[in-house]
Amino acid sequence: MLPYSNSSLPLEVSEFILNCFVTSPIWQFWLSLPLSLLFVLAMGANTIFLITIQLESSLHEPMYYLLSLLSLLDVVLCLTVIPKVLAIFWFDLRPITFSVCFQMFIMNIFLPMESCTFLVMAYDRYVAICRPLHYASIITEQFVVKSVVFILIRNMFLSSPIPILSAQLHFCGQNIIENYVCANLSVSKLSCDSVDLNRIFQLTMAWTLLGSDLILIFLSYTFILRAVLRLKAKEAVVKALSTCGSHFILILFFSTILLVLVFTHVAKNKVSPDIPILLNVLHHVIPAALNPIVYGVRTQEIKQGILKLLKTCG
């Protein structure tokens, strides 16, 4: 498959061409199979997860509300990205209009929102392990509401300038986006204008939001581990580690794949351009598929709720 040519573009660009995996077209077929299965798994697992928490009154607690928020964010990120990728793989639908291309706002805002949700969940586990007697008075439904408001306002306020800055740019030449979605930096570098401000602002916000979240999450689990190791009862240690284990596994996966993505972007001249694109695609679907499964398997209350729901439906 040959890349699209832009030789007949008008002066002002009205649509873009998503040109991912053109150097390795055989990848498209083989990737579409596991990707479509992961997408169906992510949608199905998160839907069952959300319905279970909604219907099971015993799960109407702050921790499970936070898990519901995480599932909703996973669903939005999946629906924003994966259908378009599969449309490219199966039907070669690479063109995307200028207005639709600003779906990147959703990506820019929901990815740090997921990171911030992990941070709130880490704090929830910190209070549960390190201050168990005060847990019921600190982690309340009001706390969850305030946390959701904080997550929304923080990320909307800090992320909204990114698409606003991009909307001010003029596109009058190249229209081929070397990516699978309209990522801000991939689009803005096609502009006829200077994009230094866009680049600096996005990188600063990315490190500020995601970096600060990861540092605070690491500190929370450091305090948790220290408190757990002080417990004398072996059963209490096992229970505490089990409670935090599923959270930490998913947070570790979330942060690890982000770091790998950053390093491959920095070393883009030494790796195939398809590698960062592939990692980005997987980062939008694998956590979404893993999150409800890991929590469903490792959390007894959720497991029982899901089995009850499946028996009712059966």
Automatic annotation (TrEMBL):
<keyword id="KW-0807">Transducer</keyword>
<keyword id="KW-0472">Membrane</keyword>
<dbReference type="InterPro" id="IPR000725">
    <property type="entry name" value="Olfact_rcpt"/>
</dbReference>
<dbReference type="GO" id="GO:0005886">
    <property type="term" value="C:plasma membrane"/>
</dbReference>
<keyword id="KW-0716">Sensory transduction</keyword>
<dbReference type="InterPro" id="IPR050402">
    <property type="entry name" value="OR51/52/56-like"/>
</dbReference>
<dbReference type="InterPro" id="IPR000276">
    <property type="entry name" value="GPCR_Rhodpsn"/>
</dbReference>
<keyword id="KW-0675">Receptor</keyword>
<keyword id="KW-0297">G-protein coupled receptor</keyword>
<dbReference type="InterPro" id="IPR017452">
    <property type="entry name" value="GPCR_Rhodpsn_7TM"/>
</dbReference>
<keyword id="KW-0812">Transmembrane</keyword>
<dbReference type="GO" id="GO:0071396">
    <property type="term" value="P:cellular response to lipid"/>
</dbReference>
<dbReference type="GO" id="GO:0004984">
    <property type="term" value="F:olfactory receptor activity"/>
</dbReference>
<keyword id="KW-1133">Transmembrane helix</keyword>
<protein>
    <submittedName>
        <fullName>Olfactory receptor 56A3-like</fullName>
    </submittedName>
</protein>
<dbReference type="Pfam" id="PF13853">
    <property type="entry name" value="7tm_4"/>
</dbReference>
<keyword id="KW-0552">Olfaction</keyword>
<dbReference type="GO" id="GO:0004930">
    <property type="term" value="F:G protein-coupled receptor activity"/>
</dbReference>
